[in-house]
Amino acid sequence: MxxxxxxxxxxxLVRRIYAVQQKQHGDTLAALIATQSxxxxxxxKLLRIHQPTHAICVFDSHAPSWRHQIYPEYKQGRKxxxxxxxxxxxxxxxxxxxxxxxxxxxxGDEADDLIxxxxxxxxxxxxxxxxVSTDKGFYQLLNESVSLYDYFNNSFINRQQVLKxxxxxxxxxxxxxxITGISSSAIKxxxxxxxxxxxxxLQQYGSLxxxxxxxxxxxxxxxxxxxxxxxxxxxxxxxxxxxxxxKLGFNLKDLRYTPSTx
Length: 262
What we know:
Layout: E1 4-9, H1 10-25, H2 29-50, E2 54-58, H3 66-70, H4 83-98, E3 103-104, H5 111-124, E4 128-132, E5 146-150, E6 155-157, H6 159-166, H7 170-180, H8 195-205, H9 208-212, H10 221-228, H11 230-240
Parallel strand pairs: 1-2, 1-4, 2-3, 4-5
Antiparallel strand pairs: 5-6
Helix pairs in contact: 1-2, 2-4, 7-8, 7-11
């Protein structure tokens, strides 16, 4: 029997819900209470839709990660989590637990890396994994076992859709972001090469490694520019690549979901 692990990118879900409530109520207790209720209802809906055999919600610790250590500017300028919501996360986790879903959060590990580790483990066991998130960074994880679900648009995103949308394979996206950078995380990439240039280079050469292995060609301005900034591209690649080697300390069986009979 094929198992299905439902992984909720909890902060992605909760912060988007809180943003809606914040517009109605401001940063007030009413907004927090509404967020807790709406998020719990969303989780229950996801469980009904996907009927998983296993499930877990993954939260960020909001502590500096290994990315901050090698790149202090990481996520610099990003709007911090509202303090009221931060204080209410424990209650949200308790509500999730009350319907049978545990939460995972570890100091120093970003939720994205924890999710990547779980997805990679499931894929290697040839089981099914559904990641609930709107974060495009998870595109790099998509394969026959791993899919991405957008709760707010009620739609799946798979490898074929990514190829059609991005004109690159899921495997090439890490190299693409290594060149373009990711502005929302303050990752710079290669200065002077935008999305069109990155797309052109990868469609011509296939990968970042192949690009750097090309002979110098002064007539190719894009190639010259990226080769002159190889260290920037490699740093960006390290930052945008999700880790899959974190020791989680539990097995899939520990995440089994048993629907309530109430």
